[in-house]
Design brief:
185 residues, alpha/beta, six-stranded mixed sheet, two-stranded antiparallel ribbon
Length: 185
């Protein structure tokens, strides 16, 4: 039995998903080297994708976003198995596949780390509508990266299906992901 609260939550999730869908003619690309050293290929991500653009040296936002992804996948139960969690670095100079390999293991065993070239990152940034910029913080201190902090959902065709805040939390993110998946079933 669906409670009124659950129904309202699902309707809010559907409205959210509909309001955040950009018009798109082609599937959103995932380009670069995987954390296991292989080139990323579309067949690596055959079903739904949950994608986060960030970097491993991020002091706060990225770890929270990746933990939200991991918690959402777990909260989805068996439905979570249909999601490919992907972490794309916006700092390919520091985030080599070897660095990504160590980092993604902290969050979820199925999380795939992607290190694109600078050119691939430009292509993906434009296609995914993700912004990023290097921020110098002072002499002798490592730079930071300013970037879009959203979890991005695509359907099996690679079409956008929603955008979630990185700090929404696993349970609420799972509700919205489930609504997006049900809306496209």
């Amino acid at each position: 039995m669906i409670t009124r609260r659950t129904a309202v939550s699902l309707l809010a999730g559907l409205a959210f998903v509909s309001a955040t869908l950009p018009a798109r003619a082609a599937a959103l690309p995932i380009l670069g080297r995987r954390h296991d050293g292989r080139d990323a290929r579309p067949e690596d991500f055959p079903e739904w994708r949950l994608v986060y653009f960030g970097y491993t040296h991020c002091p706060d936002v990225c770890p929270l976003g990746l933990q939200t992804m991991a918690d959402a996948i777990e909260a989805l139960g068996p439905l979570g198995a249909r999601l490919s969690p992907v972490f794309v670095t916006v700092d390919p100079a520091r985030d080599t596949p070897a660095v990504m390999s160590q980092y993604v293991g902290f969050f979820h065993p199925r999380l795939v780390g992607i290190t694109p070239s600078e050119e691939e990152l430009k292509v993906m940034g434009k296609a995914w509508r993700v912004k990023y910029a290097k921020v110098e913080v002072g002499e002798g201190r490592p730079y930071l990266m300013d970037h879009t902090a959203s979890l991005l959902i695509t359907d099996p065709a690679g079409e956008p299906a929603g955008r979630l805040s990185h700090d929404l939390g696993g349970a609420r993110s799972a509700e919205r992901i489930r609504a997006a998946m049900e809306a496209r079933s």
